[in-house]
UniProtKB/TrEMBL annotation:
Protein name: DoxX family protein
Any one of the GO CC terms: plasma membrane
Alphabetized Pfam families for the sequence: DoxX
Family label: Belongs to the DoxX family.
UniProt topology in membrane: Multi-pass membrane protein
Subcellular location as annotated: Cell membrane
Superkingdom of origin: Bacteria
Transmembrane segments: 6-23, 43-62, 68-86
The entry's keywords: Cell membrane, Membrane, Transmembrane, Transmembrane helix
Annotated InterPro entries: DoxX (IPR032808), DoxX-like_oxidoreductase (IPR051907)
Length: 133
């Protein structure tokens, strides 16, 4: 069986799952769900980051303005790494920043790959089919 048939659909699945994970960071920081002991103060830099995670995570999950959302989300993840993790240690394993690094590079990949065929972008024809796969 040729698995390359599934490649564009797996791209969509990757985008949806990483979008949901990013979204969950935003819901915890901004909406308090799931309950998190370190919920940031409203309008603090961490709360604003949560607002970005909430909005961009939603866009990425549904696949709307996917490339633009992924570009901004990649920057948000990089910013989060350098502000919240890098000062603790050089090594992501020791500073707790593995998720931020992975988010950053997966989002950067999505900027270039597009959202895949299962997306609002593909549904409304925002991009040609060659850029959504």
């Amino acid at each position: 069986m040729d698995l390359t048939f599934f490649t564009p659909y797996m791209l969509s699945l990757l985008r949806i799952m990483v979008g949901l994970l990013f979204l969950s960071h935003g819901t915890a920081k901004v909406l308090g769900f799931p309950k998190w002991d370190e919920r940031p103060a409203v309008l603090s830099i961490y709360w604003v980051a949560g607002l970005f995670e909430l909005v961009l995570g939603t866009f990425l999950t549904i696949g709307l303005f996917s490339r633009q959302a992924a570009f901004v989300a990649s920057g948000v993840a990089a910013f989060a790494y350098f502000i919240g993790h890098a000062r603790k240690s050089f090594y992501p394993f020791l500073n707790g920043g593995e998720a931020a690094v992975l988010f950053c590079f997966v989002f950067l990949y999505l900027v270039f790959s597009g959202p895949g065929p299962i997306s609002v972008d593909a549904l409304i024809g925002l991009f040609s089919s060659s850029t959504t796969q």
